[in-house]
Amino acid sequence: MANINEARVLIIATDGVEQAELTTPRDELRKAGAQVDAATPSGEEIRGWNMVDRGDTIPADLKIDDVNRDDYSARRRRPPSRSRLHVRRAIFRASSAAMMGAHRGRSGDS
């Protein structure tokens, strides 16, 4: 395939996707002339994340189960961002440790 206008690209994503990791390549490929479809587990819109904030809803073009992989010249799969989950766990652990330290300090002052 020599022409991007002949490309058909599939992006597979689910709720919790880092918004820019889906929308930026999708929009750039569309701007270049490719046909880009987004598939989700339910075939309905998903909610993205913008770093640590809730992002926009992102429309889906079809349900993953309805995808015919032979229809596409390229596929991109974007699972939920694991780094965001690790950041949240680290914040929780740090705040829990700080609370436990503060609690121990107060109980010895009685």
The largest beta-sheet arranges its strands as: 5-2-1-6
Largest sheet: 4 strands, parallel
* SS strand fraction: 25-35%
- CATH class bucket of the largest domain: Alpha Beta
Instruction: Assign the CATH topology of the largest domain.
Output: Rossmann fold
Radius of gyration: 21 Å
Low-confidence region ranges: none
User: Structural class from helices and strands?
Assistant: alpha/beta
The number of distinct β-strands equals: 6
- The helicity comes to 25-40%
In words, what does this structure look like?
With 110 residues, the protein is of the alpha/beta class. It has two helices and six strands; from the N terminus they run E-H-E-E-E-E-E-H. It has helices at residues 19-32, 82-107; strands at 8-13, 35-40, 46-50, 53-58, 62-63, 74-78. The strands form two sheets. A four-stranded parallel β-sheet has the order 5-2-1-6. The chain is flat and about 35 Å long.
What is the fold's blueprint, element by element?
Blueprint: E1 8-13, H1 19-32, E2 35-40, E3 46-50, E4 53-58, E5 62-63, E6 74-78, H2 82-107
Parallel strand pairs: 1-2, 1-6, 2-5
Antiparallel strand pairs: 3-4
In short:
The chain has helices at 19-32, 82-107; strands at 8-13, 35-40, 46-50, 53-58, 62-63, 74-78.
Feature tags:
2 helices; about 35% helix; alpha/beta; two-stranded antiparallel sheet; 2 domains; 6 strands; 4-stranded parallel beta sheet; single chain; Rossmann fold
